[in-house]
């Protein structure tokens, strides 16, 4: 048995028990050839027009011998590469390539012609804007890269490829601007990605969980986004975008707490409106964490803080309530969390309606039945609305968890417990460091020059320098006139 038959048999053994693998024999002059591919993930039209048809033309009279032109650059109008390892060839076939085995040749030829089913580019569902681009990432990483290339048309935009997962072989791409991005950050990411050894990666969040820094806190240390303009803006600041095949979102590193509280729409509208909305967002982010705990702690342990008229109103509303304020708040908060989750899982046409009507009906029924008081329903409703203002989903989840911890401390230890827990949380945030960037910068450490893009947004002509937090090599981004 010659070498080519050995290669064919080994490749066939690797692909055994796969009924969707196609073996397509082709006779070219007096040479036997076999194409091996998976029909569902290969572009059949491209295979026939660019690869099989040039081979069949060699059967016409007067053509050169097949073995003389097989490796000619002019035979196939499509890139190919030779491969002797049958395992590598089998992996290429499962990734959407077609392999050509020629009798008596020691190697096979691999043609990369994948064709996967994918949806079109649509509007972002989780980061909707009124002003600005509407396009969002999809599951095809090549399309996502093209969206970024459309935003940043510069040769210094670099894309580095990794392959993660022993079985999934998932492509991962690191996107950055050479000359802006900190080389130390790239070295850390390169070392981390090369050390990841898992069976498979099915989402971009799988990657962040492999980094040791993410195991120290519940606060997100990667910024997730579905929007190409957000990734492009981050790359222009000297940060790094991480894109994964099969995931309609990207990660941005490093990140800070204040960047997670910013929306891409802040930069598409007037700086006056953007500053006002941003300050409202910060205030209600604090409200979503502290309001239930403050209400329970003050009404239970420090009622003298409340004005007399308001205190009498609260006392009258709670007169026939069988539960303590802490139990009452926990019941309402847990019910609200259940309604929120139900609204997410229920089909979209009815999910929003059911969640809104459910909240109204349950709240009214609970007050009428004397299970909870009306002020508590108001507090929980305001807290729930405030939680939706946070633009970053994972940060919102972290704040929701902290709300329960503060609520329990406020209901058991009073205002002192809430203040102590708040101080501990703030201290923890100040001690966090994501890829060399302080999590609370520019607030801790204080960098006054960057406050113009923190609690408010200054006009774009005033933001002449890139943020110091991200260690961009070139600090100047706008030339002064």
TrEMBL record:
A GO CC annotation recorded here is: membrane
Membrane spanning residue stretches: 282-301, 360-389, 401-426
Record's keyword terms, sorted? Membrane, Transmembrane, Transmembrane helix
Q: Which InterPro entries match?
A: Spore_Ger, UPF0353/GerABKA_families
**Keyword NADP applies:** no
GO biological process terms, alphabetically, are:
spore germination
**Family designation:** Belongs to the GerABKA family.
Q: What is the protein's given name?
A: Spore germination protein
Q: Which organism is it from?
A: Paenibacillus lemnae
Its lineage reads: Bacteria, Bacillati, Bacillota, Bacilli, Bacillales
């Amino acid at each position: 048995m010659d070498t080519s038959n050995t290669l064919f048999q080994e490749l066939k053994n690797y692909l055994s028990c796969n009924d969707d693998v196609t073996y397509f024999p082709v006779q070219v002059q007096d040479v036997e050839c076999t194409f091996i591919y998976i029909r569902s993930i290969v572009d059949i039209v491209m295979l026939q027009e660019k690869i099989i048809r040039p081979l069949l033309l060699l059967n016409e009279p007067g053509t050169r011998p097949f073995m003389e032109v097989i490796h000619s650059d002019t035979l196939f109008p499509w890139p190919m590469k030779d491969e002797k390892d049958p395992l590598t060839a089998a992996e290429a076939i499962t990734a959407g390539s077609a392999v050509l085995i020629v009798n008596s040749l020691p190697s096979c030829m691999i043609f990369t012609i994948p064709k996967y089913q994918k949806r079109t580019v649509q509007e972002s569902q989780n980061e909707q804007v009124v002003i600005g681009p509407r396009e969002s990432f999809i599951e095809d990483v090549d399309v996502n890269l093209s969206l970024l290339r459309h935003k940043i048309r510069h040769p210094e935009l670099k894309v580095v490829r990794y392959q993660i997962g022993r079985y999934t072989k998932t492509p991962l791409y690191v996107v950055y601007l050479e000359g802006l991005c900190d080389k130390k950050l790239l070295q850390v990411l390169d070392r981390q990605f090369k050390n990841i050894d898992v069976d498979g990666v099915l989402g971009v969040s799988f990657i962040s969980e492999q980094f040791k820094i993410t195991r120290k806190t519940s606060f997100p240390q990667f910024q997730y986004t579905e929007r190409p303009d957000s990734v492009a803006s981050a790359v222009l600041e000297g940060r790094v975008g991480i894109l994964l095949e099969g995931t309609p979102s990207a990660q941005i590193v490093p990140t800070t707490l204040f960047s997670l509280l910013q929306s891409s729409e802040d930069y598409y509208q007037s700086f006056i409106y953007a500053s006002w909305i941003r300050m409202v967002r910060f205030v209600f982010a604090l409200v979503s964490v502290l309001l239930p705990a403050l209400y329970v702690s003050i009404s239970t342990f420090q009622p003298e803080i409340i004005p007399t008229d308001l205190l009498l109103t609260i006392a009258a509303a709670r007169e026939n309530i069988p539960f303590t304020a802490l139990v009452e708040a926990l019941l309402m908060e847990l019910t609200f969390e259940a309604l929120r989750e139900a609204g997410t899982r229920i089909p979209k046409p009815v999910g929003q309606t059911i969640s809104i009507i459910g909240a109204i009906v349950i709240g009214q029924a609970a007050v009428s039945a004397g299970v909870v008081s009306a002020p508590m329903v108001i507090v929980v409703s305001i807290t729930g609305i405030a939680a939706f203002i946070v633009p970053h989903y994972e940060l919102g989840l972290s704040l929701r968890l902290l709300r329960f911890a503060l609520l329990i401390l406020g209901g058991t230890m009073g205002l002192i417990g809430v203040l102590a827990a708040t101080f501990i949380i703030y201290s923890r945030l100040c001690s966090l460091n994501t890829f060399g960037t302080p999590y609370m910068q520019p607030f801790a450490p204080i960098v006054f020059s960057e406050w113009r893009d923190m609690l408010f947004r200054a006009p774009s002509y005033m933001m002449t320098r890139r943020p110091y937090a991200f260690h961009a090599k070139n600090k100047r981004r706008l030339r002064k006139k």
